[in-house]
Write a structure and sequence with these properties.
mainly alpha, 426 residues, 18 helices
């Protein structure tokens, strides 16, 4: 279904340039993290860098196809794409392959397909379609509930597959809802739940409960004229206490042992010296070696293919989730800042273009794209630096993986196609 253009297709070459730079950096750093002194052959499919190079070529081809399709195609079939993606997720329970405890992959020969990467696209399209529908009124509780279900259903399915990292990404879409006029109380509630959960785990259930009740009481009493203060204090306090108890129960009875360990490391909960020493050889190993690799790079780095820790494979996941450690060692502080600058410019550019869209569907999809990229970027960089818990999500366009690279390319290039069409809209 090739697009019929009223005018010449005008793509945003700033975004395309940043995309090509990030993808190029990705292939280069995957090569440095996987080469072992042998002759380099980019089309060697037995090597990680060879696979990623081929994935890059496939992604570029797919991106070309995406921008060639009629722009109305994405809006018209967004609901169908969403339903098909949910079916694909459910099929994982029957035909999926379990990797590192997560039932997230379809084995296709030597290639593993991760559907959750593509579901991000379909959810973004579905959210954009529903919000842009003239019958949707986000002031209505019923419409809000339907929108929440669109986001929460794939989250629930992915959590049941023990892929918590991928599920977290979908919560970034609530930022989009806030932009489109949904009550800020939802955003406040999410942040309140996160803070209360951290306090509960870091200190105790009793401490978090007392803080929750005292803060709620003080907030409403000093807020000024507020109707039904007492009722609001009771209701919010009850919900806060429920959050504290739910956090404790989830941590002790629902989370897997390795998930609890990641939280222990992040919040420094473990006090037993013997257990800490054991963690240093297991779950802390990646993080510690990653920090050492980044710090060893200094200001300018050791040089490409000269990183001793990178070339020595000290960080087991340095080609995937911890790829930023190779950037830090070989390119140093300046190289790391440059990568962060590219991501920042990419996200800001998408937000700027989203805001000037004439079509509501395009605007919402643009904000969805920016939000998904932002949460991936924030969590991955934070994870490598020890600022966020260890969550297995890739760094967009840099991390190894065909599913993630192709999916991120489709996600971005759909927006490029939508943006290019704004000259045809009134």
């Amino acid at each position: 279904m090739i697009g019929q253009r009223k005018n010449r297709l005008k793509l945003d070459w700033i975004i395309i340039s940043i995309y090509l730079l990030l993808v190029g950096f990705g292939v280069g750093n995957i090569l440095s993290s996987s080469v072992s002194g042998e002759e380099i052959y980019l089309f060697d499919f037995t090597k990680l860098y060879g696979k990623q190079f081929i994935y890059t070529l496939i992604s570029l081809f797919v991106g070309f196809i995406v921008i060639s399709i009629d722009v109305k195609f994405y809006e018209r079939f967004s609901s169908l794409f969403y339903l098909l993606s949910l079916i694909l997720l459910v099929c994982l329970f029957l035909f999926g392959k379990r990797v590192n405890g997560a039932l997230s992959w379809f084995p296709i020969g030597s290639f593993n397909l991760q559907p959750s990467e593509f579901v991000k696209i379909t959810v973004a399209l579905a959210v954009s379609k529903y919000i842009s529908d003239y019958q949707t009124d986000l002031r209505k509780i019923s419409d809000q509930a339907k929108l929440f279900l669109i986001i929460l259903i794939p989250i629930l399915i992915i959590i049941l597959q023990n892929d918590t990292g991928s599920s977290i990404v979908f919560f970034s879409l609530f930022l989009v809802l806030y932009r489109e006029g949904i009550s800020q109380n939802y955003i406040k509630s999410i942040f309140a739940i996160i803070i209360l959960s951290i306090i509960t785990l870091k200190f105790s259930l009793l401490t978090s409960s007392i803080i929750a009740v005292l803060f709620t009481t003080a907030y409403y009493f000093f807020r000024g004229k507020t109707k039904n203060k007492i009722i609001k204090i009771i209701v919010v306090s009850f919900l806060s206490l429920t959050t504290c108890f739910a956090t404790t129960y989830t941590y002790n009875n629902i989370l897997k042992n390795h998930q609890r360990n990641y939280i222990k490391v992040w919040l420094n909960l473990e006090k037993d010296p013997l257990k800490i020493k054991k963690m240093e050889k297991t779950i802390l190993y990646n993080l510690n070696e990653s920090k050492k690799a980044i710090s060893s790079g200094g200001l300018t780095g050791k040089g490409y293919l000269k990183g001793t820790r990178t070339m020595g494979n000290f960080v087991p996941a340095q080609h995937s989730d911890y790829i930023f450690s190779t950037v830090g060692e070989e390119w140093g502080f300046f190289g790391s800042i440059f990568i962060i600058f590219l991501y920042t410019m990419l996200i800001l550019r998408i937000l700027y273009l989203s805001e000037i869209q004439k079509n509501k569907f395009s605007r919402v999809y643009g904000y969805s794209t920016a939000s998904i990229l932002f949460i991936h970027f924030l969590i991955n960089i934070g994870m490598v630096l020890g600022l966020t818990p260890t969550i297995g999500i890739p760094l967009p366009f840099l991390s190894y993986g065909g599913s993630s690279l192709i999916a991120f390319t489709i996600l971005l290039f759909i927006f490029l196609r939508l943006d290019a069409n704004k000259i045809n809209e009134w």
